[in-house]
Design goal:
Layout lengths: L5 E5 L23 H13 L4 E3 L15 H6 L9 H8 L6 E7 L5 H15 L3 E6 L4 H5 L9 H20 L25 E2 L4 E2 L14 E4 L4 H10 L2 E4 L4 H17 L8 E10 L3 H8 L8 H12 L9 E3 H10 L7 H9 L4 E3 H12 L6 E3 L1 H14 L4 E6 L6 H16 L12 H6 L4
Parallel strand pairs: 1-2, 1-13, 2-3, 3-4, 4-7, 7-8, 8-9, 9-12, 9-13
Antiparallel strand pairs: 5-6, 10-11
């Protein structure tokens, strides 16, 4: 009996980086029209997706040349808004599909986030996931009073404490509600207790003043790919989020996460990875591959530079005429920017000692920023073959976060009409929802 995949759909970039104007996108609607998101939710639920997911950022990209101008001109990861209210709206037109929302532990306070997530979990009927990130973005940091990025290891130290506080707050009200109409008793005082947390980063009295989450606590997601990030993720994740990368790197990251889980005293069999997967499916492979070419026309090269600089925390406009990938990666790490990303992947592909020109790097950068290089395109059969291969090679635990579409809602409709039926035919995906909460939906992977 084949193991079934989990599938998420990432709406983080549906209206940015040129996607808002491509053929197949909405006409007469622009971000953040709530009806766009309600339509997405209905389509995703028709396809039995596990969840709709959104990453987030709270600043306008400004790392490239120290200015927001390029990002604003070309819509590079801008504009954004907090997806919290839009997810509430999507939950009101659906019954089963889950919702993943992102907050940065580097900037947020755990009491606020724990309280918010419990509240959202009640509104959605237990369908919320929290994706906790450390943030590598200078523009985000500046909006929360930071002059520079917090040191890489310290960001993860803060994340671990942040999640510990959230978990203790969620536990502080478990089983507390009574609601006895006859006596008038609302809660059990014995089950509502302060947490009295005093740590390196946070001091929190507790307890929460909200009712407990319908699913015990929201699902926890984390995307750390560095050794320090994997160590942090292993402490708490229900499901990990994996970057889109070559299959051999994915296999290696799965093994590294398994080792970290074992070191944390957890069973690796119970923690899946949702691999980021840009995917274009059409009625024929030729049509899908033709549509993939549109990715290279969405933004200019300087727009790609703004995207890469924002997501790494390093200004690639400063590149010298010639450099080695190893030297560049060392400089990025020394600046407390993220040591993984395009430079890491290019070094894996070509070798760390490879020398590049600035122009060559930005050409690769355009293909990377638009996800052209890593977008799979083909017929439903071709894409199902591809997903099955990656799923089995990485342990048949978790699945895929499909995103970075060429155009919305066309790409999501094509996934539901072409790919999902093919995966269902192979026994790799559910035909219907059987659980009430997101926790139950994610666990529903066996026929």
């Amino acid at each position: 009996m084949p193991k079934r995949m989990n599938l998420g759909f990432d709406v983080s970039y549906i209206a940015m980086d040129g996607r808002w104007r491509t053929p197949g996108s909405w006409v007469g609607r622009t971000f953040p029209d709530v009806e766009m998101y309600e339509e997405i939710a209905r389509i995703a639920e028709r396809g039995c997706f596990d969840l709709i997911f959104s990453g987030d950022g709270t600043g306008i990209p400004s790392t490239w040349e120290g200015s927001t101008d390029t990002a604003v001109e070309w819509g590079i990861t801008w504009p954004r808004q907090d997806l919290n209210p839009l997810m509430v709206a999507m939950s009101r037109v659906t019954r089963h599909v889950g919702f993943g929302i992102t907050y940065a532990s580097t900037f947020m306070h755990p009491y606020y986030v724990a309280r918010l997530m419990n509240s959202l979990d009640h509104i959605t009927g237990g369908r919320m996931a929290l994706n906790v990130v450390t943030s590598t973005r200078l523009a985000d940091a500046a909006n929360f009073g930071f002059d520079a990025l917090m040191e890489h290891g310290a960001r993860y130290d803060r994340m671990e404490e942040f999640i510990e506080v959230c978990q203790r707050l969620w536990d502080s009200v478990q089983g507390a509600m009574v609601w006895d109409r006859a006596t008038g008793q609302v809660g059990d005082p014995a089950k509502v207790r302060p947490i009295d947390h005093e740590g390196r980063f946070f001091k929190v009295k507790g307890p929460l003043n909200t009712p407990p989450s319908p699913q015990g606590r929201p699902i926890l997601v984390q995307a750390g790919g560095s050794p320090r990030g994997l160590k942090a993720a292993a402490q708490f994740v229900d499901v990990a989020f994996g970057e889109n990368m070559s299959l051999d790197l994915q296999v290696r990251q799965r093994a590294s996460l398994d080792q970290a889980l074992l070191a944390a005293g957890r069973d690796p069999a119970g923690v899946g990875i949702l691999w980021q997967k840009p995917l274009i499916v059409a009625e024929t492979g030729e049509e899908a591959r033709r549509r993939r070419e549109a990715l290279l026309t969405m933004i200019p090269r300087e727009g790609a530079g703004a995207y890469l600089s924002h997501n790494s925390g390093y200004d690639f406009a400063r590149l010298p005429p010639r450099f080695t990938l190893q030297a560049l990666n060392e400089e990025i790490a020394a600046s407390h920017a993220t040591p993984v990303g395009i430079v890491h992947q290019l070094a894996h592909r070509f070798g760390a000692s490879t020398e590049m020109t600035r122009e060559e790097f930005l050409d690769y950068g355009l293909r990377y920023a638009t996800h052209y290089e890593t977008t799979e395109a083909g017929s439903a059969k071709e894409m199902a073959d591809h997903l099955e291969e990656a799923f089995e090679a990485t342990g048949s635990r978790g699945g895929f976060m499909i995103g970075h579409p060429v155009a919305m809602p066309r790409d999501l409709v094509d996934l539901v009409d072409f790919l999902i039926p093919e995966l269902q035919r192979r026994g790799r995906f559910r035909h219907r929802y059987t659980g009430a909460t997101l926790r139950e939906t994610l666990a529903d992977t066996l026929d």
